[in-house]
Amino acid sequence: MQLTIRLRRWAVASALLALGVSVAQAKDAEEDERWNAYGQATYIRNIHDAFPAAYTNLNGSPNSLLPEKERSWSATATAFLGVRPWGGGEAFFVPEMIAQTGFSNLRGLGGSVQNGELEKTGFSHPIFYRSRLFLRQTWNLGGESSRVESAPMQLAKSVQSRRFVLTAGNLAIIDIFDRNAYAGDIRQQFLSMNFATYAAYDFGADARGYSWGIAGEYYYDEWALRAGRFLVPRLPNVLALNHQFFKYYADQVELERQHRLFGRPGKLQVLGYRNVAYMGRWDDASAALRADPGKNAANCVDYNYGSSNGSAPDLCWVRGRHVKVGLGVSLEQSLTEDIGLNLRAMKSDGRSEVDAFESADRSVALALLVRGARWARAQDSVGVGFAQNWISQEHANYLGMGGVDAFIGDGRIRNRPERAVEVFYNLALAKFLWLTLDLQHVENPAYNADRGPVSIYGFRVHVEF
Q: Using CA atoms, how far apart are residues 150 and 33, in angstroms rounded to an integer?
């Protein structure tokens, strides 16, 4: 009955969205598009089986994935509205709705959260908000001309291979950085956050995944250089952002080179990030408890993650202005006309807590995507992904003492890499409607060999306007 009600709500939202935003401006193919409007609605449902666990939420540490069978779901609806206010300029406004229920209150998985649509502030009733509001300006500087097609948050236009693009406003950092053709679209590709971006990429964002900032992109033929500065949350993993732009911030730089390998296109990206944020460090929290047993999780009066473990360390005692850095490499490669892969790897310094994304200090993910053209289903796709994440020794020591971070902490840990496999089939039911069947298998959830493995089954319904 609950699923029926949620699907009806989702269908109503989809219908309203279709009436309101399913139009795009008619135009000559060679003219710059003056405005466009797109929309989407997505429903994702997951179930995890019961799995073995030697302990769960030990001594009041609250962040275990519950071992009994659980259900999770999310429903989103989004409008993408764009207009060209002047030559080379683009302005976008993106309102969004979400309703959701996560496994175990969104706790118990490190880098392998099964549904990338889930937000830290979501509820089972619909929440409406502005996800993006930004300006983009493009200056063409020469080189070969090419056509950019109309799409959500993209007006059709002609661009030159040498150009500078400036973007400023409210958006997600991964709207600009770590863009990838085969793994990154939760609504059409892999569901797991392992494949949305680098799992160890703690990019600056509020609890919904968005921020305010500015980024520049310089394109010179097959090369591109991007740099940007964005706001970080006021406290780790909260909705409010810290607006002290020159004291607390998230910087990123990405270098990209497009290439051809055995005649097939691809690109290599190197991404570095540096967060300066109000957060705690694992070793500092552990040392504080050793020096004074009263500085435990149960005694916290400052912001913490709800632990009542009186023998565990807690980050609430040691937060301050700290720096967190990471470096990642991504390879995107077309293998045939309808097969492509992406390989990502990133290492963060592993000293500081999760500020905005996932509990992972190192991550590797390999994704293979096959389009359905070879079996006469051009809009279908099949994906197979493998991911492995690690935490630092400092992070593991803190968890082993009973500490928790924003997402994980069983009260004890037998530290092992968290491994995940995902397989999906995305079936086109109509031109703008898809049904996806998805299977995920996670070993050592939350890096703990005393728990799991866990199997997760899912489906997704996605419509575009």
A: 8
C-alpha dihedral sign at 151, 342, 418, 199? negative
CA–CA distance from 308 to each of 121, 197, 300, 354, 395 (Å)? 22, 33, 9, 20, 19
Q: How many angstroms separate the CA atoms of 196 and 115, rounded?
A: 10
247: pLDDT strictly greater than 50: yes
Using the predicted structure, report yes or no on whether residue 221 has a pLDDT greater than 60: yes
Query: Looking at residues 254-261, what average pLDDT do you find?
Result: 97
Copy the structure tokens of residue 187: 């609504």
Residue type, 463: V
Query: Mind listing the pLDDT tens digit for each residue in 94-130?
Result: 999 999 999 999 999 999 999 999 998 889 999 999 9
Helices (H), ranges, 264-382: 282-291
What is the spatial distance between Cα 445 and Cα 240, in angstroms, rounded to a whole number?
29
Can you tell me the distance from the alpha carbon of 426 to that of 462, in angstroms, rounded to the nearest whole number?
Answer: 10
Query: Which residues lie closer than 8 Å to 42 by C-beta, 6 or more apart?
Result: 74, 75, 76, 77, 117, 186, 187, 460, 461, 462, 463
What is the DSSP annotation of 374-408?
GGT-TT-EEEEEEEEEE--HHHHHHHHTT---SS-
Q: Which pLDDT band, with edges at 50, 70 and 90, does 29 fall under? A: very low
Asked if 405 and 354 count as a contact pair (C-beta separation under 8 A), the reply is: yes
Measured in degrees and rounded to the nearest 5, phi and psi for residue 303 equal -60, 125
* Beta bridge pairs of residue 92: 82, 134
CB atoms within 10 A of CB 115: 24
Token representation of residue 222: 């097959």
pTM listed for this prediction: 0.91
